[in-house]
Amino acid sequence: MADILQNVMDHAVAVARKAGEVVREALSDDRKVMTKSSAVDLVTQTDQKVEKLIIQSVKEKFPQHRFIGEESVAAGEPSILTDDPTWIIDPIDGTTNFVHAFPFVAISIGFTINKRVEVGVVYSCLEDKMFTARRGGGAFCNGEPLQVSDQTDVHRSIIATEFGSNRDPEVVDKIFSSLRNILSLPVHGVRGAGTAAVNLSLVASGCVEAYYEMGMHVWDIAAGSLLVLEAGGIVMDVDGGDADLMSRRILAANNRSVALRLVEQIAPYRPDRDDVKKISGKWW
Ligand SMILES: O=P(O)(O)O[C@H]1[C@H](O)[C@@H](O)[C@H](O)[C@@H](O)[C@@H]1O
Ligand SMILES: [Mg+2]
Ligand SMILES: [Mg+2]
């Protein structure tokens, strides 16, 4: 098992670096923008091209492994996590940033066995930061070990979150209700990088104390959640329950005391799960 995981890690890092080159080059081209679940859920040909590149390259090396890829799911592939070795891929996390050349864009690759993330790679390709984690083996950025912040007082914390791409009025109300509660605690600040994977790497790096979001997907958080755990942090549901990769809800924090103060402030809602088939033939 150990050797397989090292091979997976090495391959994930190599292919993420290659994907990052493609993304950086594409920044100077015209970016044709299409939409998916809503008018603000963006996708480009580069997202699709990078996902194909990653999946093809992994298939050649690990023909038995399964995939859950953001753009494959958008094209109708199922989004079901099994016990089999599975690569969970977000080819461009931060597509809106990519479209606008806002400088935080990541390639996120998580690898699960028995539904548990064993390897996580987040390549923040415009910063050239390669974040890596193996379960039980620590978290690193460009080879340097990561450690979450030791702050226990939420009032002295920075909290990261995102607004997502769901503009239903009830969801927007919940987002603002959570924000108002958290800002009024008060906290030192609220931030959002525009990519879940980078937000999680910021928690792992100790730059922000916590990140929460509802409505993102498993490919946004699979790799980054392992970074946080391996940097000494915790990952849970926004209501304080157990984390569930497919629930589309996450709260990742440096420690339990900060996390539980946030749980009291977050107005939760339940997006449709990633593994629930809503409309026949479509997996979202
Ligand atoms: O679609 P991408 O850019 O892969 O992922 C982003 C989600 O679309 C967005 O809803 C979410 O808020 C953001 O955190 C995520 O990274
Ligand atoms: Mg994403
Ligand atoms: Mg994406």
TrEMBL record:
Its cofactor is Mg(2+). It is found in: Cytoplasm. Pathway: Polyol metabolism; myo-inositol biosynthesis; myo-inositol from D-glucose 6-phosphate: step 2/2. One of its GO terms (biological process) is inositol biosynthetic process. GO terms for cellular component: cytoplasm. Its EC number is 3.1.3.25. Mg(2+) 1 binds at residues 70, 92. Signal peptide: none annotated. Keywords: Cytoplasm, Hydrolase, Lithium, Magnesium, Metal-binding. Its main location: cytoplasm. InterPro entries: IMPase, Inositol_monoP_metal-BS, Inositol_monoPase_Li-sen, Inositol_monophosphatase-like, Inositol_monophosphatase_CS. CDD domains: IMPase. GO terms for molecular function: fructose-1-phosphatase activity; glucose-1-phosphatase activity; glucose-6-phosphatase activity; glycerol-2-phosphatase activity; inositol monophosphate 1-phosphatase activity; inositol monophosphate 3-phosphatase activity; inositol monophosphate 4-phosphatase activity; metal ion binding. It catalyses: alpha-D-galactose 1-phosphate + H2O = D-galactose + phosphate; alpha-D-glucose 1-phosphate + H2O = D-glucose + phosphate; 1D-myo-inositol 6-phosphate + H2O = myo-inositol + phosphate; glycerol 2-phosphate + H2O = glycerol + phosphate. It comes from the Eukaryota. Mg(2+) 2 binds at residues 90, 93, 220. Coiled coil: none annotated. Homodimer. Belongs to the inositol monophosphatase superfamily. This is Inositol-1-monophosphatase.
